[in-house]
Design goal:
14% strand; four-stranded antiparallel sheet; 43% helix; alpha+beta; globular
Length: 318
């Protein structure tokens, strides 16, 4: 049975009123600091993006399209359910911000590079992984009220279920790593920019020069994992660097993956604005690469504050 997003929304109405309205309003946590508000604004920014993405994945393809692409029965319907989850997430975060006197960041206009169900799901895996990383990274900043951290964590676990379902649909492992990768606000925000066409309001977060991941393409069904030593190729525009870098300077790729410290690997030039670097031992799942002149000694926060020349770029390894 095809279930539209509108029908899903109406189906949830009885649940919304199964408890007194006053209790549901009081259950929303407070925002006690500008840091809390900034974390929530970024979360809302990403929820708007995911809502637009999943709505398109539901509206732009039919059940027959998903079946022909090899997805199991009911997959499109569940994409619609995910879209409704993102709608609820965005609405809830907006209400929390508004209750605290903050103006919620509005949605942007987006453009997503997919043209069939499989390319949509591959892209959704990448974007949802960014959202998971942002919630993980932002959670450490929500120290003013345990209820707010609990609320954010409850969204994070649902996002992880979404991603596991997507990965299973393309024949990949639903849990490719022992740990997920946390992202700073700067890195998560910059990763979102590749899909943003225009925004009525941007967040006060620095925009970094772009790092483009060129090759190799992710393995079919994301299996087997890309082996250590595989050459990764990246491109960038040196004229956009925010600091001066000598053309002869040795550059490095800093790879954020799981909960380990950043792994730095030496690059080899493949032309102006082009470098290659090997996949380090132990890297798997989805990693995030940045270009740097540092060859070690920085954690993810320091790398996003002052150690990045370009990036991050998302690298799907398994």
């Amino acid at each position: 049975m095809i279930l539209s997003t509108t029908a899903l929304a109406f189906a949830l109405i009885p649940l919304a009123f199964s408890h007194p309205l006053e209790k549901r309003q009081n259950a929303l946590p407070p925002v006690n600091s500008t840091i809390d508000a900034s974390v929530l604004q970024l979360a809302l920014y990403l929820e708007h993006l995911e809502l637009n993405l999943y709505t398109g994945g539901f509206v732009n393809f039919t059940d027959a399209d998903y079946t022909a692409a090899g997805f199991p029965p009911g997959f499109r319907e569940n994409v619609g359910v995910i879209a409704d989850h993102e709608r609820v997430h965005a609405s809830t975060i907006s209400t929390i911000l508004s209750n605290a006197g903050y103006t919620p960041v509005p949605p942007c206009s987006y453009k997503f590079p997919y043209n069939d169900p499989r390319s949509f799901v591959n892209l959704a895996n990448m974007i949802t992984t960014v959202g998971i990383g942002a919630y993980l990274g932002g959670g450490s900043l929500l120290t003013d009220d345990p209820a707010l951290l609990t609320a954010a964590s409850s969204i994070l676990t649902v996002e992880s279920r979404h991603d596991a379902y997507l990965r299973t649909g393309i024949g990949a492992s639903p849990f490719p790593t022992s740990f997920d990768t946390a992202l700073t606000a700067v890195f998560a925000y910059n990763l979102a920019q590749m899909f943003v066409v225009s925004c009525p309001q941007q967040l006060p977060i620095p925009i970094l020069p772009k790092l483009n991941f060129v090759s190799p393409a992710p393995p079919p069904n994301l299996q087997p994992p890309t082996p250590a030593g595989t050459t990764l190729q990246f491109t960038f525009d040196p004229s956009t660097f925010l600091v001066h870098v000598e053309p002869s300077a040795q550059l490095y790729i800093g790879l954020l993956n799981m909960i380990t410290n950043v792994t730095f690997v030496e690059t080899t030039s493949c032309g102006d604005g082009c470098v290659t670097a090997p996949v380090p031992e132990g890297a798997m799942g989805v990693a995030f690469a940045v270009l740097s002149t540092f060859n070690g000694g920085l954690n993810g926060n320091q790398l996003s504050e002052f150690g990045t020349l370009a990036g991050p770029a998302e690298v799907v390894l398994s």
